[in-house]
From TrEMBL:
This is Glycerophosphoryl diester phosphodiesterase membrane domain-containing protein. It comes from Corallococcus sicarius. It comes from the Bacteria. The chain crosses the membrane at residues 86-110, 116-145, 166-195, 215-235, 269-287. Keywords: Membrane, Transmembrane, Transmembrane helix.
Length: 324
């Protein structure tokens, strides 16, 4: 039986999770595996065999540190830096190509001198660009997962996430609904407050300085008051793309956001630390005559993928809630 010959256990149950139906068999020991044990269908070996062969990610929620994550990702980067850099170049090329298509669509609309056509082609192009860039980014994370699990950087994996277009769009739509819409409503409320206080009348009479001062003061106060709550709420969204990329069959958008919130629970300061390191890596790559920016992006993606792997539940832990 080859490594990729999973088999199917019709009516069988998982050896590690007896309450779950089997979706395949381990290519090494032959035990039945559920979707969790096969890492969403991406692993041909069960967790026990992966542990014996050293194929599991060594860091987990209870033992990971920013320093240990850096050491692990740096070692993986040194081993596969060339292919990771090429994967980043392909990702940037696809993003640039999608932007070119958007510009072509806008040019066609402008040549036809049709505002409606410009709007339709521009909107469709923007949506297509968003989807293509997002799905290729998921593919880049999938490549990073493979490298961190001890495998090679397979460039074909960059385009392995195209079947997730609907879950990806639905997740973005949900994020827009729960994050962007409330902020728009808050801005509208602030505008109504301005109208109610008569500041707009001052502006209408040309007294812009008198009208602008209080408005800026209110905006500054709201920014300070809402900064930390927004930071606390939005930081878990850092894991949305890794969560979508890791699962072969992505969960529902609500489940994705719930898992991201659980992953970030009690880990926000460490996440900020990893974010600062990735920023420093990118700055270092930019300083290196911009040539180092490509490998720096690959290393940054490894750090994001590694942090996700360290914080996600292990296959043998079942589906119990994450600790706080």
């Amino acid at each position: 039986m080859s490594d990729m010959d999973f088999g199917r256990g019709a009516g069988a149950t998982c050896a590690l999770h007896p309450l779950r139906g089997a979706t395949g068999t381990c290519a090494r020991c032959g035990n039945f595996m559920c979707d969790t044990c096969s890492e969403g269908g991406t692993s041909a070996r069960c967790p026990t065999c992966r542990e014996r062969q050293g194929l599991t990610f060594p860091l987990h929620r209870d033992n990971w540190t920013v320093s240990a994550l850096w050491d692990l990702c740096w070692a993986a980067f040194q081993r596969e830096w060339g292919m990771l850099s090429l994967a980043v170049l392909i990702t940037l090329g696809v993003s640039g190509g999608s932007q070119l298509l958007v510009n072509i669509g806008l040019g066609i609309g402008a040549a036809a001198d049709s505002p409606v056509l410009i709007g339709v082609l521009g909107g469709a192009g923007f949506l297509a660009q968003l989807v293509v860039q997002g799905l290729v980014q998921l593919g880049l994370l999938r490549v990073c997962f493979d490298v961190l699990h001890g495998g090679r950087a397979d460039l074909a994996r960059l385009f392995s996430q195209m079947h997730k277009v609907i879950p990806y769009l639905l997740t973005l739509l949900l994020i827009f609904a729960i994050v962007v819409v409330p902020m728009i409503l808050l801005g509208g409320l602030g505008f109504l407050v301005v109208l109610g206080t008569g500041l707009s009348a001052d502006a209408a009479r040309g007294e812009w300085l008198n009208a602008l001062g209080p408005v800026l003061g209110v905006v500054a106060l709201l920014s300070v008051v809402l900064l930390f709550p927004l930071f606390y709420v939005l930081l878990p969204l850092y894991f949305v793309q890794p969560e979508l990329a890791y699962e072969e069959v992505p969960p529902s958008p609500v489940t994705v956001l719930r898992r991201c919130w659980e992953l970030a629970r009690g880990q926000r300061l460490a996440m900020v630390g990893v974010g600062l390191i990735t920023a420093l890596v990118m700055i270092g790559g930019l300083i290196a005559c911009c040539v180092g920016l490509i490998p720096a992006m690959g290393l940054s993606q490894l750090l994001v993928a590694g942090m996700y792997l360290a914080l996600r539940p292990r296959s043998d832990e079942g589906s119990d809630p994450l600790p706080g």
